[in-house]
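A quick aside before the break. I want you to see a complete sequence-to-structure record at least once, exactly as it would be stored in a machine-readable document. Don't worry about memorizing anything.
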Amino acid sequence: MATEPFGPPPVGHEPPRAAAPSREPPGPRRARVFFAFVVKEWKHVLRDRKSLIILLGLPVVMMILFGFALSNEVKSTRFVVLDPTPDATTIAITERLDQSRYFALVGRVDDEAALLRSFRRGEARVAVVFQAGFDRALRHDLHAQVRVVADASDANTAATVTAYASAIIAQVQADLAGPAAARGGIAIETRMLYNPQLKSSYMFVPGVMTLILMLLGAMMTSVSIVREKETGTMEILLVSPMNPLVVIVSKAVPYLLLCFIDVLIILGLSYGLLDMPTGANVPLLLAECLLFIVATLALGLVISNVVATQQTAMFISLVGLLMPSLVFSGFMFPIQNMPLPLRVFSNVVPTKWFYLIVSDVMIKHLGFAAVIKPTLILVGMTVGLLAIALKTFRQRL
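That is the input. The structure line, written in tokens, reads:
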């Protein structure tokens, strides 16, 4: 009979340890635990209303915006007609343009000077100019000329609307009876105002400048006050004898100088590298840029006052401002194509008015009289945002 040896086991022959009991519950119980975790997490999600709104609301907003509201198709473009001798054919062409969904007749002008004034005032973006004796020339000489003039400060829109107008006029010619129709007697000439070469930089420079100043100005100041809250230095500001207005202004001044340096850099690159047309009123342009920078800094201060963390401030200033600034500035999508509620909402977006100002001053070389309306609106927004920033600045933690 075999007996167990006495004494400790030899080195290298340790007895096998018993396996530790598994902490995993058995199969059915594991499923119940997993389901309980899912329920707990679901309750957390439901309690976080802000995140829930973003999760469920963002797809709806994006689909509605990009599916129905935002379109590169140009509709209801305002146009004027210069027709020295109205006749049946010119009236037919004018009515066909007006009846289409792409154009809306806003008036008739008597000469080229009145036509240019309508462009400078923003009353029209397209003009149709018929030669004198259009119908007679078409029927006797089998050749008549019509000129389509477009505001090419927005090169893409100008190219699109001139193509629309040419197609409609060609359709009217196809409907004409007689040898003039057979020989294609209507010659269509296109002319681009302010940007005859259709350079895309003419449109992108004002748009990019608008977006850069909005994002940098609001983002940098949005973390200025909330940073004091997070680092615990807000008490020092609150016990200081300084007026809250002075505290707010002192927070904004460094960023004001930095953003203005950005403006100088952008203008230098625009005129030095991108061949932007010279001749703009530079002091007026710089003054308008300064006004817009103050508006963006005031917006950033409002954000900084109402949020609790730098992360939230950065998220709101970067993501929350990027989309409205991009969509409602008129830089990417024509605002006149949007539904009425969105067109109304675009009026409260500062980038819309600044983009109009910069485009008129930089590309069309217009003066202060032409941009006084958007300037006054921007002044009102700036004063309102500064008042809100002052009011929301907390005197006590």
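Two observations worth writing down. The chain has a mean pLDDT of 81. DSSP finds 16 helices and five strands in the chain. We'll return to this after the break.
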